[in-house]
Design brief:
Helix 6 packs antiparallel against helix 9, helix 7 crosses helix 16 and helix 12 packs parallel to helix 16. By secondary structure, this protein is mainly alpha-helical. The radius of gyration is 20 Å and the shape is globular. It starts with a helix and ends in an 8-residue tail after the last helix. The protein contains 17 helices and no strands.
């Protein structure tokens, strides 16, 4: 396995970042099984429940790009630690909240902190490796993060039934503080993440003008679409479709979600190997194609047993496309915009996460599940068409 992933030649800081990311994501995942239920208890009218989810992405939209610019000018270590501290603060607000309004504030702050962490950690990993190893390094890193999510979600649901919702948030705070401590004492992070790159002289306007680079534009559009569909369908409409329309219990839905996460984990670990063999663009197109087939199969076989393998392959398709897309973005970005391009890429992703749920819920409530899934397939087909128009040259 180590030979397959090439881990023996990886620097020590990579494994330190793995631990920080795993712990942070596990803390994030603890509340996923019950967050909407907890929000509805705080707001019985249900009017603000959606904002609890959206607040996470809304705050991220406004920090992703500035954090990329700041990482170029001020250095990465300080920003990464600030992000972890803000995440812990947001989780603590969720723990002490007496109202849904404060829960929204806590979620927004939590999302803000994780946005800073993810952009800086991604940039660090992309900087650590050359183009021949970036795919495997990023895929393994994201795979380990998904393992944290896979473990955290069922543990959080189990804990909520025993100690209550709020105590789960406190446990999340402790996990994030472990991440913060590991980042603070990391010797490797001190060496490579403390010095700024220097003033690039780039303005926000100048960075957005780089979207004239067609390859970067296409990757940003795909980034938007991936999270637009993931949050709007996978984490919203799909769950309602299973529970309300097909009468599948929450417990069985959890099993389907777990299999999707397993597919994601396997995909992220193997995406680097696939992209090295097939190329990044073919790997992304293959992943999107697998997703499209799975969304269509959801409409053909509306019973629990069929969703198990389909859910696994949907997660696998999403995972190999998403991991390879991140690396391709870094390859096509202009040299002077490497750090800022990551911020722009993630900003598009967050906008997609914010807009996806209300968009697809509107289609689902007004036109039904079949048209909703068909619209997803159409959007994915358009993304494949865009990818076919670009060229990728490895450094």
């Amino acid at each position: 396995m180590k030979r397959f992933l090439g881990l023996k030649s990886y620097p020590g800081i990579y494994f330190e970042l793995l631990f920080v990311g795993f712990t942070l994501v596990m803390g994030m995942a603890l509340s996923t099984a019950f967050l909407p239920i907890f929000a509805e208890e705080l707001d019985p009218s249900g009017a603000l429940v959606g904002f609890v989810v959206s607040a996470w992405f809304l705050s991220r939209i406004f920090i992703e790009l500035p954090s990329g610019v700041l990482s170029d000018r001020l250095g990465k270590r300080k920003l990464l630690i600030i992000g972890l501290v803000l995440s812990a603060g947001g989780a603590f607000i969720c723990y002490i909240t007496p109202s849904i309004y404060l829960l929204i504030v806590g979620r927004a702050l939590w999302g803000l902190g994780t946005a800073i962490y993810f952009i800086i950690s991604t940039e660090l990993i992309l900087d650590l490796f050359d183009s021949s190893r970036r795919g495997r390094a990023v895929g393994t890193f994201q795979g380990v993060e998904f393992i944290g999510s896979f473990i955290g979600a069922p543990i959080g649901g189990f804990m909520a039934g025993i100690i209550g919702y709020k105590m789960v948030f406190l446990f999340a705070v402790l996990l994030i503080l472990c991440s913060s401590s590991a980042a603070i004492i990391s010797k490797g992070l001190r060496k490579i993440g403390i010095k700024p790159r220097g003033r690039s002289g780039l303005s926000i306007k100048g960075i957005f003008s780089s979207l004239r680079n067609w390859g970067l534009t296409v990757t940003c559009i795909n980034s938007f679409t991936k999270m637009f569909i993931f949050q709007g369908i996978a984490n919203t409409v799909f769950l309602i479709y299973l529970n309300y329309q097909l009468r599948i219990s929450v417990e069985l839905i959890g099993i389907i979600m777990s299999l999707r996460t397993i597919g994601n984990i396997i995909a992220n670990v193997t995406s680097g190997y696939l992209s090295d063999k097939l190329g990044m663009k073919p790997t992304i197109i293959a992943g999107i194609t697998i997703e499209s087939i799975c969304f269509y199969l959801y409409t053909l076989f509306p019973f629990f047993e069929a969703f198990l393998p389909v859910g696994f392959f949907e997660g696998f398709g999403w995972g190999i496309a998403f991991a390879s897309l991140t690396v391709m973005m870094y390859e096509v970005a202009p040299i002077k915009l490497k750090g800022s391009a990551i911020g722009m890429y993630r900003t598009f992703m967050d906008i997609g996460g914010f807009l996806g749920p209300p968009f697809f819920m509107f289609i689902y409530s007004s036109m039904g599940s079949y048209i909703t899934f068909l619209s997803v397939i159409t959007i994915l087909a358009l993304n494949i068409a865009l990818l076919l128009t670009m060229r990728v040259h490895k450094e």
